[in-house]
Design goal:
This protein has about 90 residues and is mostly helical. It contains 3 helices and no strands.
Length: about 90
């Protein structure tokens, strides 16, 4: 088969339209997947061993800090329930 019909000016708009349409369809389908994978990669970076260790250090530092009596004693005045006495 001769390749001359492929380069015939009569078929050039059809070939160009098909290639452009294919590229647009591929972009339409692949761009949302690419964006999703980028977001997932950013979230995954928060769960690396180093990031988890850093959060654990921050949590331990915040729990070992001395707290005032107001912070540890919930009061009914702020809308919180009063602590139950033992055995109740």
């Amino acid at each position: 088969m001769d390749a001359s019909p492929l380069f015939d000016p009569e078929y050039l708009p059809i070939i160009a339209g098909t290639l452009i349409g294919f590229a647009l369809l591929a972009a339409l389908l692949l761009v949302p997947i690419w964006r999703f994978l980028d977001r997932e990669e950013e979230v995954a970076e928060e769960w690396t061993p180093e990031a988890v260790a850093e959060r654990m250090r921050e949590h331990e530092a915040s729990t070992s800090a001395p707290e005032s009596a107001e912070e540890t004693d919930p009061s009914p005045e702020r809308g919180e329930a009063a602590p139950r006495p033992p055995g109740a």
